[in-house]
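Project standup — Tuesday

K.O.: blocked on the structure for the chain from last sprint. Re-posting the sequence here as requested.
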Amino acid sequence: RLFPDESSWMTFLQHPRRKAAHALTWCPFGRHLAAISRDEACVLVWDVAARSACPLHCSGLRLGNPKAVSWSPDGLYLLVTFQDDGFAIWETKRWSCESFAMGGACRAVGWSPCASMVVLAMDAADTENRDCQPLFVGTLYAAADGAHFGVEWLLASLPHAIETRDVVCSGATVAGLSFSPDGATLAVAFEPGTGSSAVVTYQIRRQPSLTFSVARVLDVRDGPAPDEIKFCPSPNPSPSATADVLSALWGSDLTLFVGTSS
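H.V.: unblocked you, prediction finished:
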């Protein structure tokens, strides 16, 4: 329906089975909207302009019902995490799928700005070594036939900052992930175990192997981790660009950290 000044429009999208959506995410280019319901093993991908939905059925993956959805920054992949176990990635041209059972649910997802890398924190990750927090890092690539894709996985470790060692060693887990616009820094929110929550940034080095090193401890406070952390997008990410800005939301408390990568 058009508004009186004809400058805006709205439409009503209804689930074919009248299920309530509990999570929504727009693709980066604004044409498609992915929606999930807590009690249905299906992801609906809406073409908003056409008001039509394509269902991505998940029951055959045996991972439970969807928990959260996340588009890659280039819109070529849709990652879905599940309530019971693991996650799945769909490529959005032919909607082929790769699923991954990890023995536990995904706690946080972060895409690199160029969409070549995805980082996940899992419940099932081995935390026996209390001097690091493990992350699963995936590199996506197109298969030789051009109709499929693959993901190469490796297990990387987040070293603890001295200021947060007591916090993280008390059973804290990763609760949020966000890449800086240039992809050189990863911000991590830690959920407290028996102590405080923390927000820490890590420098990423890819040669000779992928490593993370502590850049700055931005915040340590009593109580839960922030509801969300997110770097402000930059239209021109480069070494000469202005300082990175990271937002962290604790309920109604919004904190901005400026110049977070050094």
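K.O.: great, moving the ticket to review. The chain has a mean pLDDT of 82. Helices lie at 165-168.
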